Amino acid sequence: MLKVYLSGEIHTDWREQIIAGASGLDISFSSPVTDHGASDDCGVAIMGAEPNKFWHDNKGAKLNAIRTRKGLADADVVVVRFGEKYKQWNAAFDAGYAAALGKSLIIVHGDDHQHALKEVDAAALAVCDDPKQVAEILRYVLTGELPA
Amino acid sequence: MLKVYLSGEIHTDWREQIIAGASGLDISFSSPVTDHGASDDCGVAIMGAEPNKFWHDNKGAKLNAIRTRKGLADADVVVVRFGEKYKQWNAAFDAGYAAALGKSLIIVHGDDHQHALKEVDAAALAVCDDPKQVAEILRYVLTGELPA
Amino acid sequence: MLKVYLSGEIHTDWREQIIAGASGLDISFSSPVTDHGASDDCGVAIMGAEPNKFWHDNKGAKLNAIRTRKGLADADVVVVRFGEKYKQWNAAFDAGYAAALGKSLIIVHGDDHQHALKEVDAAALAVCDDPKQVAEILRYVLTGELPA
Amino acid sequence: MLKVYLSGEIHTDWREQIIAGASGLDISFSSPVTDHGASDDCGVAIMGAEPNKFWHDNKGAKLNAIRTRKGLADADVVVVRFGEKYKQWNAAFDAGYAAALGKSLIIVHGDDHQHALKEVDAAALAVCDDPKQVAEILRYVLTGELPA
Amino acid sequence: MLKVYLSGEIHTDWREQIIAGASGLDISFSSPVTDHGASDDCGVAIMGAEPNKFWHDNKGAKLNAIRTRKGLADADVVVVRFGEKYKQWNAAFDAGYAAALGKSLIIVHGDDHQHALKEVDAAALAVCDDPKQVAEILRYVLTGELPA
Amino acid sequence: MLKVYLSGEIHTDWREQIIAGASGLDISFSSPVTDHGASDDCGVAIMGAEPNKFWHDNKGAKLNAIRTRKGLADADVVVVRFGEKYKQWNAAFDAGYAAALGKSLIIVHGDDHQHALKEVDAAALAVCDDPKQVAEILRYVLTGELPA
Amino acid sequence: MLKVYLSGEIHTDWREQIIAGASGLDISFSSPVTDHGASDDCGVAIMGAEPNKFWHDNKGAKLNAIRTRKGLADADVVVVRFGEKYKQWNAAFDAGYAAALGKSLIIVHGDDHQHALKEVDAAALAVCDDPKQVAEILRYVLTGELPA
Amino acid sequence: MLKVYLSGEIHTDWREQIIAGASGLDISFSSPVTDHGASDDCGVAIMGAEPNKFWHDNKGAKLNAIRTRKGLADADVVVVRFGEKYKQWNAAFDAGYAAALGKSLIIVHGDDHQHALKEVDAAALAVCDDPKQVAEILRYVLTGELPA
Fold first, then answer.
1. Does the N terminus or the C terminus of chain H have fewer Cβ atoms within 10 A?
2. Domains in chain B, number
3. How far from chain centre, in Å, is Cα C117?
């Protein structure tokens, strides 16, 4: 079984596209919590309010790290998608974290981000711009079949 | 001796500020190549031109990785500074890489980036906004002396 | 599946509270032997009496370490609870052991221990005072659901 | 050269006793910051005040961890002394951390703490109650000479 | 269960011979994509054409590495067969990669390659020239039975 | 599930005693090939005769190492029994190998070997002389139950 | 200081070219024994003759591995050159070994070997065909200076 | 510099022979305490008497392990000599420990021990019977020079 962690952008349905495209394959997918509000507020919701925004965010980010670190540590393949908007430093952080663990990295982004992502792309085993290609990659990796 | 790698923003003199502020301490500093042009073009300058921008950048990013990976691997402490401008995904990538290697992380950034950097900050042992504070941290770590 | 090791205090039912609170989740819990008498005397009960208290305890502590080390090594998440009484150095030892292995740490203690546990808390991804919160954390980590 | 980290109790001169007793040996000693006040307040002194005691302590404990983690990671031998007073959970945490890294542990404590420290002692290669014995151990380890 | 990765030559049916010979044993076999054309062109077929042969091959080799690295990382035993023809540097690369990971290596080759493969053979736990022998080795390793 | 590797002496039924004594427990046992003749001759039986006794033995010992290394690498607990006769250097070798991997060691031997095995015993978490005690240890480790 | 291991082809002066081209840089170079005859016969010359060519070579290859493994393990950068002639499987083996250890790989070969070396090149951070380029790479990595 | 640990038999001058034979080479040798009496009694001499022989020996063996583990961990090459007499299980234990750490092993023993040491020899990169050969091996490894 191939364990694949889907990191990065949370505002489009790219994870669903990959999972659908990879249907029938022996893959176990995992991903961060993709509900933006829950992800931002989880720390204080469970462990108590913080008046200071830094600690509000710190509590949440650490709690999310319990899930993220397990996803990254268990994965054979880490897919990181960079979207059009936002800083997405957590996505690049995950890519670096995965690279240091020796995971196989697949990076997904549009052409406009090519230069800014050159160091991230240079650590990857595959770079593409369409989630459909990720599904094709996973299918090839597991079965040797190429798209028609 | 403490080995400190200074990653991230390359358009201000923050590295010089830290090194000056840490004068007299038993520290060995290292950093990426900070000449933007050389860093961008090193791959093709040495190994031959590439008509395609992706491979132009890929050759350079990999060559720079020889230096970056050694700096990160050898370091006890990795300082990552995020500046005002640009995507700086390589900085976040280095932070993630260092975190996975168990390095002590110090993150430097202004308040405006606080929310976007919450996952990176959550992996750090110190977060501040002024390079002078990094020098004070290093002095305290090595000597136990606090700023007057 | 998430593997969770429940270390520390053995005189209240906090483990049962967490396990009950986490019912329905895909978690495998483990814990040390919580029968105080058996835990103290296991070494001599199986391998023969020792007139010297140090070796009596040494035999038992090592035998218990077979279980403890496996629980810590296998775990994704290590929860360590500090109770009101006793020195509980084995709990802090487990926390340090887990931290060095890179496990996600959740620390549970009352406010009165806050200052004395600051180094332990600083290594944790979550700190709380109520076992119910641990169950909520585990639920969020696995499902993304926050308490109502 | 033998690298020895001296962790634990900071209110007596046991470190100086060991260092004096080991004079002439090829040893590099390191230790945490032993100025109690500086150690408690270093975080806020450098990185800004925190109204909440938890975060005040958290900032300091993390900053101290930069020094502590390097001391532990670099050491061949970790000596941990438990004194008469205080909870000393950071000492037990360091012992667990060192054990997980496979360091050679020497534990120093009085008889009254024997039962409470049995798990910590069980992970050690030497247990004694007098700093003078630690110096004798280090001398024997390096030279093969036993005390007269 | 024993996990066995079958690396190397892809132009004869040696993998099938081993799998058939090992029938009934608790073994999970894996191998690279053995369709030469698909293996060569997979990168450009999925991620877009490259006019330059180097990058055409680079894209494919990296994509294949996702499968290869997982096969090698998961394996208990890595079998590498060198055939009569071609350079087969990828086979020797896999053998070195597996050796550095501490995997048990079985090397299969004819006598004519003996001297040229002496460094590879020297890292192996078994060297033979017939796939049938590999099946016998696997049967012995799992059951203790020797061929009649 | 607890994975236990049973190394060492192959001329008495101590393995069977432990397995019987541990019946009903969630343990997966493994062991070397215990057929002395097969173990000695396996290399040449499969890979061809060697006129020189050293290489005859070398071929066999390496082939057996495929099984032994997997057993040791997969184990949570390694039990090593030293019998009355023979040099049994392979048993001590396995004990050292397991110790370096951080496995929990249980050593079984009679009193007459106590002094000669002191370094091996010093690396163990339990030392006893009767296989029945090993079964009791395993039962306690998994269930917390002590022998009546 | 940068530690560089120069693996591969031993019939031309490429090592000397690199070392000369890197003069003045803070680099420590190491390499295998490059005297072909000594390298082939070292095992039997020291440890006694072997009538069988396989064991003659095996003894030598293992003895050379003492040097090779240290060179690879200590290196920051591993340069592997493939020449025009011979199988050079040991070069590819070293490349795989270095890749698995996470070393920065630089591969040097002529165009005619491009397709056959695609898997090896895909694991490298730099690929070139002239030793002079390796010296330029090392100079850039250490000083940031590009060739005029 | 090559770090060499000399483990095993302590009743002949084989260590001195190797050190003399390797004079002029860039080697740092280390070894266990070779004073039999001191080695046996060091634990009780420093940390207090034990009426029970097992604990007497246990205290000493653990204290010696501080030196032994450092010697093994730091070494590039571990030489283990088996003499004519005694069980020498500690020597075989060291060999197994070194093998699991991936150290280059050189085993020295007479012909009469060949069969009993076959598993130990099978983990070695060189096997010989004369300390003079070890010196020749070390000279070849460092300089490429073979004995005249």
1. C
2. 1
3. 15
